[in-house]
Amino acid sequence: MKIYQTIIIALVALWFIGCGGAANAPQTASPTDVLKTYIEASDRKDLAAVKQTFSKGTMKMYEDAAQKRQISIDEVIKDQFELASSAELKSKLELGKETIEGDTAMVEVKDNTTGNLERIPFVKEDGVWKVALDKFMEDLMNKMREEMNMPASNLTKPDGSNKSEVNK
Q1: C-alpha dist (Å) from residue 130 to 53, 92, 147, 159
Q2: What is the span of the domain harbouring residue 87?
Q3: Are the CB atoms for 124 and 131 separated by under 8 Å?
Q4: What is the pTM of this model?
């Protein structure tokens, strides 16, 4: 009887190892991995892959910009590719420290051309990390406001609307 228990335990263990067990469980890409995917897709001008890395807020920001300019979202994103076409982003940027707090994260990015250090925000949506360029733009606007010592009501949101506007 003891031999059968040993064989059953061995077979279960082999099955577990053969199926990958916990080691091969699906894992969510880290914010840094998502940023690498975004950068590589941008360098290839792979519109579909770039859009897959965007948060819902980022897509909304692009939708608003497209509507304001009366062009498609794809055209707005393609314009972004053209702005970055002077050099591959991958060779220009150095990825640094990743910080995760709950469903938000930040990845430090250094621009090797200018030496500037930026923090790229991420949000977790449906269990997947997404680039939150809308938050980046909002943080950038707040930073500019602080540097210029201006009240927030004098600035526009990333979608082009005024923060002080009230829906009538």
Answers
A1: 5, 21, 28, 19
A2: 27-154
A3: no
A4: 0.68
